[in-house]
Structures are given as structure tokens and as C-alpha cells.
Amino acid sequence: MKPKYALFILLALASCNGLAPTVDRSADPAASAQKVFLAYDAAAKQLLAKMTLEEKVGQMCQPDQGALKDPADIEKYFLGSLLSGGGSGPKNQADYTLQGWTDMVDAYQRHALNTRLGIPLLYGVDAVHGHNNIPGAVVFPHQIGLGCARNPELVEQIARITAEEVRATGINWSFAPCVAVARDERWGRTYESYSENPDLVQVLGEAAVRGLQGAHLADPLSVMACAKHYVGDGGTAYASAAWNEGRGLDQGDTRCDEATLRRIHLGGYITALRAGVGTVMPSYSSWNGVKCTAHKYLLTDLLKDELGFAGFLISDYNAIDHLDPDYKKCIEIAINAGIDMVMLTDKYAVFCRDLQELVAEGRVSLARIDDAVTRILRVKSALGLLDKSRPPLADRRLHRTFGSAAHRAVARRAVRESLVLLTNERHTLPLSKTASRIHVAGVGADDLGMQCGGWTISWQGSMGDHIPGGTSILTAIKNTVSKDTAVTYAQDGSGARGADVGIVVIGERPYAEMKGDSAELSLPQEDLDALATMKQAQIPLVVILLTGRPVILGEIPAQADALVAAWLPGSEGQGVADVLFGDFEPTGKLSYSWPRCVSQLPVNVGDSDYDPLYPFGHGLSY
Ligand code: BGC
Ligand code: BGC
User: Fold this and answer.
1) Domain range for residue 394?
2) Which ligand approaches the C-alpha of residue 127 most closely?
């Protein structure tokens, strides 16, 4: 090749990665993987041709089941989808069980089958670390821990199991994976992000999509995945004024040029598209002051036209409400920007009416509605939902393996692979199983709720012992040591004197989006006190951190003889004991840079003045 042409091609490639939105990427693996959906167009278009406008807008509407005034409203408004928001399950507490959830979802599905065209519902849920809303499900480590495990095969396997447990309840769609690249740990959703590093997010996000969707979406053990939150949710800027007004980093503004947005935040969507992801959720956040939910360039020009996304866009929970004071205007802006389905709480009647009016008034074109509905029906068809010979109800045989020992074994493995050994003075770890007494302290030692964190049973999660089938770290320690070893426990750290070794389990209390934003990243005083009390006993101390992100450690590294970041490991505490007692070597490597202090934030690998407490990739072994 003549050097002149080589240079030309190089320049063309460079502009592809940079700013040229009009480049034809149809030869890309991402765009060609998306073409799979086009195979379902014939079925989708055939159905579309039979639909009234009322039936079409119904397909575009997704209320939270908990806000339905009457389940028959599914028929009345021809609803195409429902969701269970965090903790939105059967209203009667006694039915908040595997059985109750399954009955609830099937009952809704039967209403959809009663409509004129009988189009089944897509039913969405946040199965973000297992089927985490349902008691008895296996709860996997949150994504930050999987980022430290750095094992795409494991992520895929976890997603396969999650899909199977979701399917057991009749649900066919999970709002996962989150492919955020969290750049500032003060963000309360940091634990939902695999890493501050885009490459790691791209690889693991792709593996999660593969696992959830399986080899084939029509496989009865697959669920539809959803890459979220498009785009730049993890890059929102810290502004002290906003914090003082009570607004954190969540739902904020990502301020950067387009090349930076593409370089850091876009890649996870490209790999998710390549894995065939069928849905994408635009972010509550903004890019340079414009809300992603209203961003026609990002949604339509970039994602659909340039990258070839052939599935559909689901707006985030009531996200369109933030676009304008007038709700009808909100709908107009969102649909015209490219949103195909709208997630909302209870405004479904208004939404369906207003959207029909917008079409009648020429403010939203029928072509845009037809495009949105074609996309939705395409995805439904790919899932096998338009196949009348396959009723869309739960396969209750799957209840037998729900939360099974085999599923838990994979979670346990994920826990041990996700642990990061930060320090280990004088070979404090691994511990002996035959010590005469091990004294355990800290509120996290025997609290499954804290071990699982947010998005567990409820939206924000909570402390306590409400996660059936799980193993706390304290129980795991007792399970592991010899029968002659005494394991004593005092939450406040008292009574340690004379023990061979002390284990203190401290960390963050459960939280999720919004409520989890933190300007200080400090640990509760109660936890620091328990550690100080243990310290007085002058025995070797192992500190285990249950945390959704690197927190500011202060004196802790000086007080601890060994320090382990266990993140939010989920229901299988045995995986922590596996590493503590040396049955497995620690192999986890930090997927985040651990900051020294808050004033240093944001700190990310590649910064020119990079000087974290523990660098990205840090992690000791024995
Ligand atoms: C979150 C999403 C989630 C949705 C449904 C929103 O508040 O931002 O991540 O999928 O709720 O629960
Ligand atoms: C729901 C969550 C949702 C949030 C949005 C909550 O009530 O349970 O799923 O993310 O509202 O604000």
C-alpha cells in the first residue's frame, strides 16, 4: 500500500474514534450484531399493521406495577410493559415470596393476553446482583467486587444464573448491566460500576449481556438485558454549591467534550451492542447541561444511526418528568429525542392520552411512533413472545433450583475472587483454623443486609437478617475453624483480650442511588470505636471492609495488621472465610484507585498527578 493511502486510512480510523458522527459503521461488529433484530421485522410489521394508535402508545408505556390502580388497566390501556421498581413486589407482605412474585407476574401477563391482539408484556426488574428483590434468591457481589475479580467468564456465569432465577418468576427483562464508568467515589452508585477504567467496564459489561441473554434470546432461560445509564452517568461533576443545596453527584451533569465522552463513557455501550443487547436506558444525568433523556443527538444520531442500535430505548424511572414543567411537553421532547418506551410510576392514563393527542396535533409523527413500536415488537419477537405456541408464563419447575446450592457455589467463588487484600503485615493472613480463640467484632460481622447493600429486597437495602439462605461472615468463620476453636463475638469489640486474633467487620450501611451520595466518604463512628476497642486488646487485628466503594481510611491502615476490602459480597459470606483461612489465595485487584482524602477526588488511573493511597490494580496475595 502506498504510504499516502495508509495515512489516509489512519486518519479515517482516527476520526471514527473521534468526532465524526456520519461515519458508516455498518461493518462494525456492534452494528452487525444488532442486525439480528432486523430478522424479526416482518413479524413486528405484520402486527403493527393491525394496531390502532391507542394500542401503539400502550406498547410504549411502562408503569410500575405497584402503582396500577387496577390490574385490568393493562387491558384498558393496552400496556406493553410493567416494571417492579426496587422492592415493588406483592403488596401483601405475606406474599412477598418467590411464589407470591411469580403469581403476581403471571396474573399481569394473563391480563395482557386478554387484549384484542394478546401481545404479552415485557416485565422489567432490577436484577443487578442476582434476582435481588426476591427472598431466597442467591445474592451475588455488587459490580464493584466483580470489577476487582476481573473475570469475564465468571461474570457471564453469574448473569446466566441470574437470568434463570429471574425466569423462575416469569420475568423476562433485567435492567442490567450498569456499564457506568464511575470516576468519583462520592457518587452513591459507584458500587454499580465495575471500574473507573473504561476497558474493564467494556469487557465485563459485554460478558454480563452475553450471560443474561444467552446464546439465543428465545432460549427459555434467557432474559432481555439493558445497558444503563446512557451515557456518562459515572462522570458527573462535583460542584460544592450543588452539594450545599443537597444535590450530590447523582443525576448530575457530565461536562466534557465529545472525544472524552466517547473515550471514557461510550465503550461499554459499543461492547453491549456487540453482545446483542436489546435495550438501553438513557441516564437521568446530563451531558454539558442537556439531559440525556432529551438528547436527540446522543439517542438517535449516535446510538441508533451511527452505532446501529436496533433494539429500543427505555427511559429511566420518571426521568421524562424532569424535562419540562408541562408533562405533555415532556412526552413530546422525550419521544422526539428517540425514547421508545417510557418508565413511569402511575401517570399511565395521562401518558397514553397525551401521546395520542401529540400525534393528532402533529407534534409527534406517526412515523416516530411506528418506529418505536416496531423496535419494541422486534425485541418481543426475538424473545419469542409473539409465538402463540409459547405461553409467556413462568416455568415453575425453575423454583426447584432457585437459590440452589449450585447457584450459591458460584456466588461464593465470586466473593473470594473479588476480595482485595490491601495490607498484610507480618503475614497476619491467612489465619489458622486451629487457634484457640478468635474474637470477632463490628456490626458487619453478622448482618446479611449490610453484606448485600442496596438493591436487595428493597430499593435502598437495609440492615438486618432478612435474606434467607445467606451466610454471614461470622457464621462462615464458625463453619471454617476446628471444633476446638472458640469463636466469640461482641459487636462493640469488647472482650477481645486473650484471643489469638481479632477480626473486625466494619463499613458502609446500605444505600442506593441518591441517598448514597457522600461528600465525606467516612465510616460511622460506631465502627471506628469498635476497632479502637479491639486495638486495646493488643492482639493481631484483621479488618474487613464491607463497602460499596473506597472510603477514606484515616488511621485504619495503621491500626490493622491486615486489611481486606470485601466490597458488598452478597449472601455468600463463606467466600470471605475461604480466603481468610487460606483455602484460597486472594487474587482480587483494585478496579478503582483508593483515595487518600476527599480533597484529592476525583482520582483516576492516568491522572497526571496520580497519587492514591492504593493504586488501581493493587492487591496482595499470600
Ligand atoms: C434507576 C435505574 C433503575 C430504575 C428502575 C431508577 O431510579 O436509576 O437504574 O433501573 O430506577 O428501578
Ligand atoms: C423505586 C426505584 C426507583 C426510584 C426512582 C423508587 O420508588 O422503587 O426502583 O429507582 O423510585 O426514584
Assistant:
1) 32-400
2) 1
Q: What is the pLDDT of residue 246?
A: 84
Helices (H), 258-341: 258-260, 267-274, 296, 327-337
Whole-model pTM: value is 0.95
Query: Residue holding cell 493504586?
Result: 615
Same domain, 188 and 310: yes
Do 431 and 314 share a domain, yes or no? no
Residue 36's alpha-carbon distances to 33, 61, 223, 279, 315, in angstroms, are 6, 25, 16, 14, 23
pLDDT at 22: 44
Of 285, 317, 321, the one to substitute when testing ligand 1's pocket (max ligand atoms within 8 A of C-beta) is: 317
CA–CA dist 620, 622 (Å, integer): 7
Q: Please indicate, yes or no, if residue 483 is contained in any of the structural domains.
A: yes
Which are the contacts of 382, defined by CB distance < 8 A and separation ≥ 6?
Answer: 36, 37, 40, 217, 218, 278
End-to-end Cα, the chain, rounded Å: 52
Rounded to whole angstroms, how far apart are CA atoms 475 and 487?
10
Q: Would you state the pLDDT for residue 245?
A: 85
pLDDT for 19: 36
* Single residue among 345, 367, 400 that ends a domain in this structure: 400
In a domain, 618, yes or no: no
- Is 608 contained in some domain? no
Both 157 and 253 in one domain: the answer is yes
Cell of 437: 480463640
pLDDT score at 240? 84
Q: What is the pLDDT of residue 24?
A: 54
* pLDDT the model gives residue 26: 55
Which residues have C-beta within 8 Å of that of residue 304, sequence separation ≥ 6? Answer: 310, 338
User: Is residue 317 within 6 Å of ligand 1 at its C-beta?
Assistant: yes
Domain containing residue 511: CATH number:
3.40.50.1700
Domain end call among 400, 435, 456: 400
Residue 53 CB contacts under 8 Å (≥ 6 apart), including other chains: 356, 359, 366, 369
Number of domains, the chain: 2
In a domain, 8, yes or no: no
pLDDT < 50 positions in the chain: 1-23
Burial of 609 (0-12, 13-18, 19+ CB in 10 A): exposed
Instruction: Judge if 350 and 496 occupy the same domain.
Output: no
Cell numbers standing for residue 329: 411537553
Give the per-residue pLDDT at 248.
Answer: 87
Rounded Cα–Cα distance for residues 239 and 524 (Å)? 24
- Say if ligand 1 is within 6 A of residue 126 CB: yes
Please report the atom of ligand 2 found closest to the CA of residue 84. Answer: 9
* Any ligand 1 atom below 6 A from CB of 85: yes
The answer to whether residues 379 and 449 belong to one domain is no
The x, y and z cell numbers of residue 174, run together, are 433485567
Comparing CA positions, the residue from 323, 293, 285, 251 lying closest to residue 516 is 251
